[in-house]
Amino acid sequence: MIGRLLAHTQIQTTSCYAYLANESVKAKVSRVGDSIGAHIASAAPA
To answer: Where are the domains of the chain?
Structure first.
């Protein structure tokens, strides 16, 4: 679908950009994990 939206005729053209999406997802997952970790740490009994 992405390739069609970008008017790519070869899957290889689209696939060379796939790593950009992966890095974005990894960054967001890391931020969510950090947020959950901070919440757990602040909720732990002293």
So the answer is: 2-43
DSSP sequence for 1-46: -HHHHTT-SSHHHHHTTHHHHHHHHHHHHHHHHHHHHHHHHHHS--
Q: What integer pLDDT is reported at residue 46 of this predicted model? A: 67
Give the number of other CB atoms < 10 A from CB of residue 3: 15
- Whether the pTM exceeds 0.85: the reply is no
Distance CA 28, CA 16 (A): 21
Q: Are 14 and 3 in contact (CB under 8 A)?
A: yes
